[in-house]
TrEMBL record:
Protein name: Chitinase N-terminal domain-containing protein
Source superkingdom: Bacteria
Keyword field: Signal
Residues of the Chitinase A N-terminal domain: 209-292
Transmembrane spans: none
Keyword Transcription part of the UniProt annotation: no
Signal peptide positions (record): 1-19
Keyword check for Signal: yes
Species assigned in the record: Variovorax rhizosphaerae
Gene3D superfamilies given in the database record: Immunoglobulins
Length: 414
């Protein structure tokens, strides 16, 4: 979720004051003091949030007294830059209103320099807007002669607008470390927006899997033989969700069935299980261990999509599923394969969770990135090159052709 490799605190991405700017996921991650809302084109519509005035400081002429050297045992200074974990307002597990208010109070420790909200791996808010909220008082000073009001040291409030579906929310409260790296206290929550059925589905059962695999594709199949059907299902590997889908396999006997073919599973032990879910209510299958002894064929196939935005730009996005086991890449390029030309080069790679939607019914969790190309100068086809150091591999070419519909076009072989 929302992790970025090879990135400092953040690089300012210019936004016009007071105006709405449509940016890619990657561009939003580099911005400061911004609030974003996903739009139908696959971009984020972002507006700048006001920058608070600088805090009051002492007169420069006021200086601390010099320290007194002591002859006794001394201890080295210890610097703590990470904020404490604040008290968070409860985030509801379900919401029928389409919005969630996120609030927190920090009562002691290191003040927060900025805070941010991530929704399904996309930055939705990053800013330095703070307040102070009243907290419970245990002073016991009550009555007409006393008026006691206890305030938090620092608080934050933001109302997040959400589309129907499941939302993995992450709230980071951050301060800069000694080397300008962000040190953040993190809070995570999951909420479901919409009035769909939230009853518990039946328990899925995995079909037999081999206990040993030598790098060949792994077929995962499951069935529900009794109970209620679910709205979507997840495949978990060692307790981490690596795939989510709203697609189901046809079956004449089972209540519900699903399947997934894992190409090139990584050489390690995999504890696999399936979650069948309705809203945020999930029922897990029993887990099965598969030991992969040899790596599968390389290079892995990158998933690449392209779509034409209403603004006349090609949005090209890619994803490398974690299940390939290649390790985190650190850079990527968007290239013109016909001219062997670099169109976009980026030195950061994001991580995207597996959260399906009505527009994207099956999603792998993995490393990802996106970029915009002006349609007027775009080549007939493009490809993506992803690198870990000097070890790189390429996607297949994806045609950039105007179509009557604006549905994403994937590279072949996915």
């Amino acid at each position: 979720m929302n992790k970025i490799f090879c990135i400092a605190l953040f690089i300012l991405f210019p936004l016009v004051s007071g105006a709405q700017t449509r940016v890619t996921r990657d561009e939003a991650e580099q911005a400061a003091d911004v609030a974003c809302q996903p739009d139908d084109s696959g971009l984020l519509a972002c507006v700048p949030v006001p920058v608070p005035p600088p805090p009051l400081t002492n007169d420069p002429s006021i200086q601390p007294l010099p320290g007194i050297p002591l002859s006794m045992e001394s201890f080295s200074n210890t610097t703590i830059n990470r904020p404490n974990i604040p008290g968070f307002d409860p985030i509801p597990a379900t919401s029928d209103t389409g919005s969630v208010e996120i609030g927190w109070d920090l009562n002691y420790g290191i003040p927060v320099q900025y805070w941010e909200i991530w929704d399904n791996g996309q930055l939705r808010y990053r800013g330095r807007q703070f307040t102070q909220r009243a907290i419970a008082s245990n002073s016991g000073l009550e009555g007409p002669a006393f008026s006691v009001r206890t305030l938090s040291m620092q608080s934050g409030i933001y109302t997040l607008t959400l589309v129907p579906g499941r939302h993995e929310l992450t709230v980071n409260l951050c301060s800069g470390g000694a080397r300008s790296e962000p040190l953040c206290a993190r809070h995570e929550a999951v909420t479901w927006v919409g009035g769909e059925d939230k009853s518990s589905p039946g328990k899925p059962q995995l079909e037999s899997l081999p206990s040993v695999n030598t790098g060949e594709p792994l077929e995962v199949r499951w069935n529900v033989w009794w109970g209620q059907p679910g709205q979507y299902w997840q495949l978990l590997d060692n307790d981490a969700v690596i795939y989510e889908s709203r697609k189901f396999s046809p079956s004449e006997r089972a209540v519900q069935s699903g399947s997934l073919r894992i190409q090139s599973p990584s050489p390690e032990a995999h504890d696999l299980r399936v979650n069948l879910c309705s809203a945020n209510v999930c029922v897990a299958s029993d887990s099965t261990r598969v030991s992969v002894l040899l790596p599968g064929p390389r290079p892995p196939t990158l998933q690449v999509q392209s779509s034409l935005t209403p603004q006349g730009e090609w949005l090209v996005s890619w994803r490398l599923p974690y299940s390939y086991g290649t390790g985190p890449p650190d850079s990527w390029q968007l290239r013109n394969p016909a001219a062997d030309q670099v169109l976009v080069a980026k030195q950061s790679v994001s991580q995207c969770p597996a959260v399906s939607s009505k527009d994207q019914e099956d999603v792998f969790a993995g490393y990802c990135g996106d970029a915009l190309l002006p349609a007027v100068n775009a080549p007939a086809a493009t490809m993506v090159r992803v690198c870990t150091g000097t070890d790189c591999f390429d996607s297949r070419s994806v045609p950039l052709v105007r179509r009557a519909t604006n549905r994403p076009r994937s590279s072949p072989g996915q």
